[in-house]
Design brief:
The complex is a heterodimer of chains A (563) and B (102).
Chain A: E1 2-6, H1 10-22, E2 26-30, H2 33-43, E3 47-51, H3 59-70, E4 77-81, H4 86-95, E5 98-101, H5 106-158, E6 165-170, E7 178-184, E8 190-197, H6 202-206, H7 208-220, H8 225-239, E9 246-253, E10 259-265, E11 270-273, E12 279-283, E13 303-306, E14 312-316, H9 332-342, H10 347-358, E15 371-377, H11 392-398, E16 405-412, H12 413-417, H13 421-431, H14 439-458, H15 471-485, E17 490-500, E18 503-512, H16 519-522, H17 534-541, E19 544-548, E20 553-561
Parallel strand pairs in A: 1-2, 1-3, 3-4, 4-5
Antiparallel strand pairs in A: 6-15, 7-8, 8-9, 9-10, 10-13, 11-12, 11-14, 14-15, 16-17, 17-18, 18-20, 19-20
Helix pairs in contact in A: 2-3, 5-7, 7-8, 13-14, 14-17
Chain B: E1 4-10, E2 13-22, H1 27-35, E3 44-55, H2 57-70, E4 77-80, H3 84-92, E5 100-101
Parallel strand pairs in B: 2-3, 3-4, 4-5
Antiparallel strand pairs in B: 1-2
The chains are: A alpha+beta (563), B alpha/beta (102).
Chain lengths: 563, 102
Amino acid sequence: MRILIVDDLEANRILLSHLVEFHGHVAITCGDAEQALQAYNTHGADLIFMDVVMPGVDGYVAAQQLKGVIGDYFVPIIFITALQDEDALVRCLEFGDDYLVRPFNQVMFSAKIAAHIRTIELHRKTQKQHEELTYLHTRLIQEQEMAQHVFDHATQVNHQNCENIQTYISSASQFNGDVLLIGKSPAGGVYVMLGDFTGHGLPAALGSLPLSQLFHSLVLKQLSVGDLARELNSTLADFLPDYMFCAAVIAEFNASGNKMRLWSGGLHDSLILDDQNEVQQRISSLHMPLGILDDEDFNTECGEYDLQANNKIIFYTDGILEASNDRGELFGRQRFESALQRSKCDIEKVRKGLHRFTGYQAGVSIQDDDISLVCIDAGEVTFKKGEHKTSEQEAYESSRAPIPWQISLDLAMAELRSGSPVSQLVDMVGEATGLYSHKPILVLLLVEIFNNALDHGVLGLKSSLKDGPGGMMDYYSEREKRLESYTKGQVGIKICHQLLSTGGQLNFTVSDSGEGFNYEQVIGSTSDESHGRGLSLVDQLSERMSFSDGGRCIEVVYIYTKD
Amino acid sequence: MSSVVSCTQQGSRLDIAISGRFDFSILHDFRNAYTLDVEGPIEKIVIDLTRSEHMDSSGMGLLLTLKKELKLDSGCIEIQNCRPHIRDALLAARLDHFFKVD
């Protein structure tokens, strides 16, 4: 320890520094307050002995000045004084931390030093722990903010604007262990998943991140709810610890909203309400929660329900039934179902009713589990336009402006034989900014005009072949034969994308090395024959279609408007 | 992704589900679905396109061949759960005259 000794008498300084050094400490001596300040600033000190009576600035004032410099740091000042009156000693304790009355013996001096060093060490330890704690706390807050950001972002994508769906979601802590996922199905319907992870808070919420990513990618594949549940189950089983799992319902509604397929594992009964908002059917959970069973034991069985347009479907997690007031009463099933009925399924009113019961808002009781409630109106599924982007692709697109471009390629027999060059081409076109949502129709147009050029142009196949005894079988086996054996032939494809103020325009020009055909005969045919439909379909779905070079070259114009 | 045709028969009703592309690439599988494994006369066919993302005129040709080969009346074949662009194409080709499009 460094010990600063402040005394105007040299004899005292020498005596004290000997004593200090005898105990194995370093002594720094000074004769007045000014020197003391300077010494403290230069060398620092762990403990200070201070004479009270000094010429000029006395010990009390010197102590005050030193304390000012020392600040929050803990350096005890012990006054050494011959004064014995109560007043003087009280002042010693007021301006310093202790006193030693002269004359003192060595034993007393040693005891004082030892006692103060214990206090200093204790103080240092506390100080260090406090600093560590402050550091950890700051880091924790930063980490939580980061996590919050990630979760907010993930859930933002999840809550798509499906107009059939009302939700009430409230988490017990900063992070929600319940997860609600809504995905627009490619077929125009909607998938809804409500899950409740074991526990609540951050550990429970963690599981929702991979779950939501996977859910959205599976929805795009239009997986059946059973298969979707199986995929989610095996992912969760892989990465969740054994004691964690996710009770869930997964439902798919078709576009007209009159059919629901439902897989449910471990969650409370789902409800179908009638036009009076009374419970018409309870659907109990058939399976165990997600994340428990191995893939081979997993059961994908799901229920199929026919719905009327005035039906409502209710999914919820147990938080709402188990919400309690300050008397320890639970909200319970009866209150919940009657709240649904009285409010005519206005979820906002149900929420208010729950809060009146529990007194959450008035701070009477504390919500101790996550609460989620979802109400889905049966009947045609509709989405609000704009605001919420659905897929990553769309989010990506909105960040880029579309550009005009042009591609052209010539395909020789080798490429024509090799599977489907058109699907590659369409993938490229579909990736182009602004065209993602038009991809299905672009695929159709390009496939039709390409097949037309290949089949009837390059390969010289006649549609009438399909009318023969073997019908389409004959036609396609002949096609395969010619595709293999022909050595000459070419299809040229040119696609040009232009921007219009309302959207854009695509021009497809496809030419072939065949003999051409009488196109006037083909267009306008709407017979129920199993052929001759391709080009009239193109004609119907495009802006215009025209031929040149005796039918060897076709140009199709497709105009789209911005979403 | 290659396409899969699966079918189940219940009495005189036949359900055929297509996943993947609905075009001439499934010609054989599609014909087998209503010719090979079928017992007794078929009066109603339901084609589920929930998991089909593409249909072109060759797929429509398959549908028309099916109708012709089984000599079924309009309305006996139902096409269910088609994606919006497939429905548009079916309607554009006026196939709703021959098939019940859901």
